[in-house]
Structures are given as structure tokens and as C-alpha cells.
Amino acid sequence: MKKVIKTISPKNNFWVISVGGSRIIPEKVDYKFVRDFHKLIQKHPSQKFVAVTGGGSTARKYISGLRKLHKKARTQSKIGIAVTRLNASFLMRVFGAPANETLPKSMKKVKTLLQKNHIVFCGALRFNPKQTSDGTSADIAAYLKCPFINLTNVQGLYTSNPKTSKDAKFIKKMTWKAFNQKAQKIKYRAGQHFVLDQDAAKTIMNKKIPTYIVGSLSDVDKILSNKSFKGSLISG
I need a labelling partner for 131 at 20 to 30 A (CA). Which of 190, 191, 197, 233 fits? Predict the structure, then answer.
């Protein structure tokens, strides 16, 4: 069976994209990914984007250090937030004029910047217990009433981690309710590595946000072009 599904057309021209930190800087900056992401956004001038950057492995390394030094979970989360903002600042400078010059720290500021920029980059907006950058992305998508694309390092949803389990099976489509139930079974931990956090799962369910999980920029392009793509869709 083909892992291909159709896009749900947005009601406006806004998109929120969560860009995993490990896509930007797995060990060192992935220049090819950054260039290709830049080209992708340029290819869709009629759309407007908010790109929320994660902390990825860089944040997890710092968080692991703080955890071993017995620092509190709040302290661990704050260093993660700092790394997400560093990644956002880096991409702001790569994109230049079409992007924002200042880093927003509120949803109101994100919306204001979106009025005059093609793309707005941000990391975590503020400290929020048990939330990752995916939760921030879901909150912004709810605020802007637009779809949410999670660009991660796996092709989509699986029954278990495909990187560690040979028995992992691909999930083409899942309801908001079913996904939320799956996410809530996982205990939150600062720097956690799950396809979407518990807060994001609850938000997309309550606000009925069409959410795409994909692993390649080519599939993001297909979603934006309203074409069939390889990945997972979380919806009604």
C-alpha cells in the first residue's frame, strides 16, 4: 500500500512549520538542508510562514549536562529555550530581507511581524512547563487558525520508534483524539524526543488543526502545492 495521502486545503495562506533543531544542526550545520529550505520558501511567494525552530541534539546535550549536575527541570527547559532561539536567529540571518529582523516572544508579535514578512522565525516564545517547540507551533497555528507542518527526521507517524524498532509500522492517518491518547501515555521530560509533545497533541485536538508529519522538504513542497505527499496526517 502506498504511503501517499492528499492535502487538506487551508482556509487562509498562513502555514506554521516546526523545524526540528536536528534538521538544522545534527552535529554541525546542515548547509544543504538550510539552502533547500530557503529555496522551498522562495518557491511559494503567495504563502506566509511561521517557522518555529527546535533545539534538537544541541539542546539535549546541554539539558543532559544540567540533569547530570542535578539542576531542576525548569533550569533544563530554559537552556532548551535558549537554543531554540539561537537556531531561529541563525535562520533569520540566512534568509535576510524576507524574514523578520527581531525575534518575537509573543504570539501577538508573531502575527504583527507576519504582516510585513514572508516568513517569521521564532523559537520558544516563553517558558511553559512541559512544552516543546512543537507545542509552541501548535499554539501559533491555533492563534492564526492555519495548518501545522511538523518537519522532523522521520517520515511520519509510526507505531514505535522506526530508528530503534524493526517492527515499527507506518501510520498514514490518525484522528486528533487517537493521537492525543497516544501522546498522553508518554511521560514528559525536558528535551524529550517524540514526534509531537503532549501539549501540542491536546492543542491540535481541541482546536481541530490539520497537522502534517513529514521527513522531507520535497513533501513539504507537495503539501504547500496541494499535492499528494508521503507522510502522516492528523485530522478529524
Answer: 233
pTM for this predicted structure: 0.89
**Residue type at 39?**
K
Nearest to 55 by CA among 89, 32, 93: 89
Four-point Cα dihedral 200, 117, 223, 202, nearest 10: 10
User: What's the pLDDT tens digit per position in 221-234?
Assistant: 999 999 999 999 99
CA 145 to chain CA mean position, Å:
16
> How many domains, the chain?
1
Q: Which three cell numbers stand for residue 35?
A: 539552502
Q: Which of 195, 103, 189 is nearest to 149 (CA)?
A: 195
User: Cell triple for residue 174?
Assistant: 490518525
| Rounded Cα gap, residues 198 and 215, in angstroms | 20
Helix H, strand E, coil C: the string for 51-68 is: EEECCHHHHHHHHHHHHH
Residue 163 contacts by C-beta under 8 Å, 6 or more apart in sequence?
A: 154
The C-alpha cell at 77 is 527547559
Is 151:213 a contact under the CB 8 Å cutoff? Answer: no
Give me the CATH number covering residue 46. Answer: 3.40.1160.10
Query: How many Å separate Cα 25 from the centre of its chain?
Result: 15
Type of residue at 72: K
Domain of residue 31 covers 4-235
Q: What is the pLDDT of residues 12-24, one digit of tens each?
A: 799 999 999 989 9
